[in-house]
Design goal:
224 residues, mainly alpha, Serine Threonine Protein Phosphatase 5, Tetratricopeptide repeat
């Protein structure tokens, strides 16, 4: 007697697609400070599929959210499975490891981890995910955390200079905010206010309770 598969059982490609949505959502939530949700969505993505891109995105999100051990385990697995994959070796792995180091406030290590990405970050991406410029964004974050405001500003400006690569990635809007923070550290209040205004205009319809938006509004008020 044969047993027919459930009609509603997801096919492999459907599971991969669902995992992709969850992984991208996890990364977005981590970027804006919703760390609990970021972890939940990353784990959901990992439960659905074992593909290269889904695991890499989830690992970056987990690294940003503080689940360092699992993020590094995922990085090690990707390294073993994709030893000659340019995207993995020079984009995903540096970003995962740097995100973990940055969360631990190990600025020097974060910057060192991103060094291999420097020659590839404007020219490598996944076929399924738009991961262009993420190493640049994380490097900018690390430089900003290390009080290297001028160097951080240079990195965030690269993102604004390449809108065709950023497309609809959240780092496109967030780069305005981070530039505002960099200018604040440099004492250039006028430029800082302008960048905060640009960010707040871009996100004028965003949910008011997003952590990074609340922080941005509070920081902007201090500049008035």
């Amino acid at each position: 007697m044969s047993i027919e598969p459930e009609k509603n059982a997801p096919k492999s490609d459907e599971k991969e697609a669902a995992a992709g949505y969850e992984a991208e959502a996890a990364l977005r939530e981590a970027l804006v400070g919703n760390m609990i949700l970021a972890k939940q969505q990353a784990h959901a993505a990992l439960a659905l599929a074992s593909g290269r891109d889904e695991r890499a995105m989830s690992a970056v999100a987990l690294g940003m959210a503080g689940e360092s051990e699992q993020a590094l385990q995922l990085a090690d697995d990707l390294n073993k499975r994709f030893t000659e994959d340019t995207v993995v070796q020079f984009n995903y792995l540096p970003t995962i490891r740097a995100a973990v180091a940055l969360h631990a406030k190990d600025i020097r290590n974060a910057l060192d981890e991103l060094s291999p990405a420097a020659h590839y970050e404007l020219g490598t991406s996944s076929q399924n995910f738009n991961f262009y410029l993420y190493p640049i964004y994380v490097r900018g974050e690390a430089l900003l955390a290390g009080d290297q405001a001028a160097s951080a500003a240079t990195e965030f400006q690269k993102i604004l200079d390449h809108p065709g690569l950023v497309l609809n990635e959240p780092i496109g809007a967030l780069a305005h905010l981070e530039l505002g923070r960099a200018y604040t550290l440099q004492g250039d209040t006028a430029k800082a206010r302008a960048k905060y205004q640009e960010f707040l205009t871009l996100w004028k319809d965003a949910d008011a309770d997003i952590p990074i938006l609340k922080q941005a509004k509070a920081e902007y008020e201090k500049l008035q």
